[in-house]
Amino acid sequence: MEVQEGDQYVRRRYTNLDPVTLFTWAALVLIGLLAIFSATHGPSSEFYQFNPRQNFSNQIMWVGISLVGLVIALVLPVRFFQQMAFPIYGLTILLLLAALVFGREVNGAKSWLYFGPIGLQVSEMAKVGTVLAVAQVVGMRRPKTMDLRFAFLLLGIIMLPAILIVLQNDTGTALVFFGLVPIVLFWSGLDFNLLLLMIAPAVAGYFAIVSMPVAIGFVLLFLGFMWWRTRDVRISVVSLVMTGGVVAMANVALTMILSDYQVQRIMSFTDPGAAEFRQNVGFHQVNSMAAIGSGGWFGKGFLQGTQTQGGYVFEQSTDFIFSVIGEEWGFFGSLLVLGLFAILLIRLLQLGANMKHPFGVLIAAGAAGIYLIHIFINIGMATSLLPVIGIPLPFISYGGSALLANSALLAIVLSLHLKKDDFSIYGY
Length: 428
What we know:
By secondary structure, the protein is mainly alpha-helical. The chain has one domain. It is 72% helix and 3% strand. A 3-stranded antiparallel beta sheet has the order 1-2-3. Strand 1 and strand 2 form a beta hairpin. The two termini are 31 Å apart. The relative contact order is 0.15.
C-alpha cells in the first residue's frame, strides 16, 4: 500500500515537468546546431585562417554535457539549490578572480580558464551563481518588504561579478549583469517609480548616441511624465538630474574623452554604411544586414547563403549567427526563432508564478531576464540597432560555456517547478 502511494506521489510530481519548455529548449538547440554546421561546413570555411569545422563537433559535445546536467538537476531537491546558492556564488567569484590572474585571453577578454584541453568562460557561469544568490537572499527576506537598504544589498550581489568581468575586458557580458539589476529589483518588489528612475538613464544614454536632440526631447518628456505620475518635486528633480546627467556625460565622453577608434566603435551602428565606418567597424554590420535582407520570405536554403557562405559576415557562428538564419531561412525562419524565444520567456514567467515562492520566482525571472537581454542585444547587433559588443544568442550561438550556463538556469527552473510542492515542506 505504501509502495503504491509512493508511486502515485512520483507520478503526480512528474506531471509538473513542463514539456513545452523542454521542447522549446530542444528546438532552439537543434536550430543552433544546424546554423553552426552551415556557418562552419559550407564554402565559407575556406576563408577562415583556422579549421572551423571543430566548432560543430565541440558544440555537440557541449549539448551532451548540458543534457546530462539537465537530467541531474531534475533529480536534485529544492533544498539543494537553496543551500548551495551562496557557495556556488562564492565559487564563481573565486573563478572570476582566478581568471584575472591565471586566465587566458580570447578575443581581447581575459575571462577563460583552461582545465586541460577544455576551456571555460567563467563569466558565463557567474550568471548562474548570481541568480541563485539573489534568489536566496530574496527568499530569506523577513519581512517581505523592499527598502533601499535591501535594494543596495541586491545591487551589490550583482555588481561584484560585473565589476570583475569589466576588469577582464569583457564589457559585453558585464552589460548583461547591469541589465539584470532592474529586472531583479522589479520582481523583488521595488517601487515602480524607482524602477523607472533606474531604466530611464540607460534609454537616455542610447538616444544620446543616436541623436542628441532626440535625447534632450526624451529627458524633457520623462521629466513631464514623472511629474504627472507623482506630483513630487523631489522625484521630478531626480529624474531630470539622472537622465540629463547621462546625456551630458555621453556628450562629453564622445567629444572629449574617448579616442577616435572608440567613438567609431560606438557610433558605427547608427549608420554602418557611412564612409567613415564601412571600411572598419561598420563592415560586419553592413554585411550582416545584407545577409538578413537578402533572405527574403523563405530564405536561400541550407548552405546556400551568398553573404554568409562567401565569408563576408564576421563571427557568423557566434555573435552574428542570426545572419545565417536570416539569409538561409528567410523572414519566416527568423520569425520562427523569435517565436520560440517568446514562448520560452513567457513560459518561464508562468513557471515562476506557479511556484508561488520568492526563490523560485526570482530564479525564473532572472533566467528569463538574462535570455531577454542576450536576445535583444544579439539581434540588435545583427540588425545594426545596437553596437557590436560580443553577446551570443542563447542556445543557438556557438559556445560551450554559454550553452552550459543557459541550460543550467533552465534546468534549475524546471527542477524547482517539478518539486514546487516541496517549498512548503521546508518551511520557507
